[in-house]
Amino acid sequence: MSDLRVKLCGVELKNPVIPASGAFGFGREFNDIYDISVLGAVATKGLTLEPRLGNPVPRIAESRGVILNAVGLQNPGVERFIGQDLTWLKGKTRVIANVAGREVGDYGEICARLDGLVDFIELNISCPNVKCGGMALGIRPENVENVTRVAKSALKTTPLIVKLSPNVENIAVNARAAEQGGADCVSLVNTFTGMAIDIETRRPVLANNTGGVSGAGIKPIAVRMVYEVSRAVKLPVIGMGGITCAEDAIEFLMAGATAVQVGTQNFTDALACPKIIAGMEQWCASHGVERVSDLVGAAKMNS
Amino acid sequence: MCELTATVLENKLIAEEIYSLTFACEEAVKVRAGQFVMVGVDGFPLRRPIAVCKAEGERITVCYRLKGEGTRRLASRYSRGEKISVLLPLGNGYYVSETEKRVALVGGGVGVFPLISAIREYADTKEIYAYMGFRNKAALCMQYEMQRGKELVIATDDGSAGYHGTSVQAFMENFERVKPDVVLSCGPTPMLRALKNAMTGRDIPTYVSLEERMGCGLGACLVCVCSLTNGQHARVCKDGPVFEIGEVAL
């Protein structure tokens, strides 16, 4: 039996596999398929101070090897999350509350509200599907540093993860900006902004016109970015982008990630996360790896 | 609700651009009329949500229209004996109460298939009056299954078979005689809109099954929402796909 436990900002996860924000709700629905306490953690839907209705439909489209989504942060608001969903989710596994806002001040307020109630806060400054807030704060390094600092100053106990956008000039520079602002961890990559056009109707498939691209097709870009970021900062890194199986997850670990998130594959296979956990254990066992954490950053570059 | 690998028993063309796929699960699955299945297509990240047409123990039949690359691949790639990934049974399904005896079904296009599951579920205990609309004679299929109720009217848009007109028109022409206690429907949005207008003020429970592009199929991702008349959003996959017609903005 290999040891799958990993430590993230001093918090132990039973394994490094986390369903990514947006794909998994607050865990309730997938718990009808399997016991979600097998997961390392759950990253929640993006939460805002007020409830949000999100974008019009269609909110999802498909292209070869990838999907595009533009949900637009539909969520019940932080208060209902605390009262209903968190009560249910707490104790089953580690909870990563993904939070978003319209402006910098919102991030401070929502972080203050969730401080001490969840295991981690993941700052969503990279959602490509909302007009204000979201990605606008996640592109310029000085904005990343500023919003991180505001969020961090509102947190007394809960570690802060900053989720980075790949739609930037240099993601390593933004990771350093998050570190400078006081982040405890960075997660990457959020989705790439894309568009799919229906050539019969000559209109974009998504009502929002553009959406976030995710799925197997983005994996090599995400692996490269995780590698670059893990070399640029001293913070632990959560890697994601197109993970479909245990081998993909191990690749991200070797690139420098301490834990991984899985999004799109939950749609292809509702049992994706437990299968990846079982597969990682098997891979470690068959390769003589005692602790999965030994794989973090294990890839040696060709000279 | 379960995620499983099923075995394809049959996947064949039954009408113009319409395929019928039957697969066997390892054990019997209890499916309510109006529920659906997420069907995986090799090489495509998203599964296709398809209404159950027939559920007989471990054998499930779904019918789908060739619409894009995914459904074309589903039609060409899966033949008898192939393994197929499915998530089922999903959604709420139709609801007919004990006291509702006279059940009218109004379907159009691929919307007739979930109504076939309603005929199968209720034919022995209720009086079924079915109004099924097709584009033309070439699109007509599964008539045998639809005949199990008390009345069946086939309608075609071009009059090439049965009643010349829509299923909603056929239904409304027979409405006073049939006097349904409840109406179950499924079809394209313009059809459902026409039905909603026709049923306004009649005080008869009317249910519609909606279609939307889906992500997880379980209610977690909030991709497939529909607008409710109260301004809120509901998840088509989890809160639906069946809604009271007055509840949804069509």
Notable characteristics:
heterodimer, A: 303 residues, B: 250 residues, alpha/beta, Elongation Factor Tu (Ef-tu), domain 3, Rossmann fold, 2 domains, 6-stranded antiparallel β-barrel, 5 helices
Question: What can be said about this structure in brief?
Answer:
Chain A is an alpha/beta fold. Chain A is built from eight helices and 16 strands.
Describe the structure.
The complex is a heterodimer of chains A (303) and B (250). Chain A is built from eight helices and 16 strands. Chain A is an alpha/beta fold. Chain A has an eight-stranded parallel beta sheet. In chain A, helix 2 runs parallel beside helix 3 and helix 5 runs parallel beside helix 6. The longest helix of chain A is centred in the C-terminal third of the chain and has 15 residues. Chain A is globular. Chain B is an alpha/beta fold and 250 residues long. Chain B is built from five helices and 15 strands. A seven-stranded mixed beta sheet of chain B has the order 10-9-8-7-11-12-15, sandwiched between helices. Chain B is globular. The two termini of chain B are 29 Å apart. The model of chain B has no long low-confidence stretch (mean pLDDT 97). The chains are: A alpha/beta (303), B alpha/beta (250). Chains A and B meet through strand 5, strand 6 and helix 7 of A and loops of B.
Please outline the major beta sheet of chain A.
8 strands, parallel
Number of strands of chain A: 16
Number of strands of chain B: 15
- Termini separation of chain A comes to 34 Å
CATH superfamily of chain A: Aldolase class I
By CATH, the superfamily of the largest domain in chain B comes out as: Nucleotide-binding domain of ferredoxin-NADP reductase (FNR) module
Please name the CATH topology of the largest domain in chain B: Rossmann fold
First-to-last CA distance of chain B: 29 Å
